[in-house]
Amino acid sequence: MSENVHAFLQFIQHEKRYSPNTLLAYEMDLAQFALFAKDRFSQDNIDHVSHIEIRSWMVSLMEQKILARSINRKISTLKSYYKFLMRKTVIVKNPMVKVISPKSAKQLPVFIEQKGMQSLLTQIEFEDSFDGVRDKLIIEMLYATGMRRSELLNVKDKDIDSYGGQLKVIGKGKKERIIPLNNELLLSISSFQKVKSDNGEPCEYLICNKEGKALTPSKVYTIVKKYLSMITTVNKRSPHVLRHTFATHLLNNGAEINAVKELLGHSNLAATQVYTHNTIEKLKDVYKKAHPKGE
């Protein structure tokens, strides 16, 4: 790793406060491009490449059938890196100026229909055990709060204000936000906290295993996928689908978009507006089915 790449990664970690996953993705993108530049152009220092090398890398990625969305993410990494080098006066000309990212088809967020979620929470039987009570709480928390998986895993018992009916969450960029909790969810939280207490293994995190250890992201993914598979046939059955479901159901039921933005912890409205497309598609479907001239 070059000195400038190291400085850049330190910058986005400590100044921008990017998540560990984002940091790893940036590091891998830069390493991948550096390897390409060396193999294809005998270029040992990516600080001094031109737009030609970058365009060639894009073409190479396309030839490998890499999705445009993934290529755009890699290009975004390079844009951030060369902007950093410009600010540090390491380079005087930004090679990204002549690079145009490939267009990617817009994909609507995958979500679960309300009746599906209702079925999952009221008809699917969860085991009457430590794991069963915990697993149901994971589903309820993700759906009722719209939290990211990483945010859920970092929730501690002390972050929950049962009296005020709210929860403190630390989101991306270490930004703190408050999410309201409904009475049913508060009861589920209280029930699992009692199960944890009876289990006898202390754990500061709300969600943990029998040994008192915080769960891994992959374990949460496995749990969510298991239960979503019981009520839906959608291809994606990840924790993030429950976040999409939370936002879509709010908007479908008349929630104000700026309020949804705050609940999700989005930094800008554009990130939230993607969920309005699902609302529009629902209206189109209703129109086609109900209007005599809808078809």
- The total strand number stands at 3
CATH topology of the largest domain: hpI Integrase, Chain A
**CATH C-level category of the largest domain:** Mainly Alpha
Helix content: 55-70%
CATH architecture of the largest domain: Orthogonal Bundle
Q: Which parts are unreliable, with pLDDT below 50 for 5 consecutive residues or more?
A: none
Main beta-sheet strand count, sense and barrel state: 3 strands, antiparallel
The general outline is: globular
The N- to C-terminal Cα distance equals 59 Å
Q: What order do the SSEs take from the amino end to the carboxyl end, as H and E?
A: HHHHHHHEEEHHHHHH
Summarize the structure in words.
There is one protein chain. The chain has 13 helices and three strands; from the N terminus they run αααααααβββαααααα. By secondary structure, the chain is mainly alpha-helical. The chain has two domains: 3-98, Orthogonal Bundle (DNA polymerase, domain 1); 114-288, hpI Integrase, Chain A, CATH 1.10.443. Strands 1-2-3 form a three-stranded antiparallel beta sheet, with no helix packed on it. Strand 2 and strand 3 (176-180) form a beta hairpin. It is globular and about 60 Å long. The model has no long low-confidence stretch (mean pLDDT 90).
Blueprint (SSEs and pairs):
Blueprint: H1 3-14, H2 20-41, H3 51-63, H4 68-87, H5 114-122, H6 130-145, H7 149-153, E1 160-161, E2 166-170, E3 176-180, H8 183-199, H9 217-228, H10 239-252, H11 257-264, H12 269-273, H13 276-290
Antiparallel strand pairs: 1-2, 2-3
Task: Summarize it.
It is built from 13 helices and three strands; from the N terminus they run H-H-H-H-H-H-H-E-E-E-H-H-H-H-H-H. It is mostly helical and 295 residues long. A three-stranded antiparallel β-sheet has the order 1-2-3, with no helix packed on it.
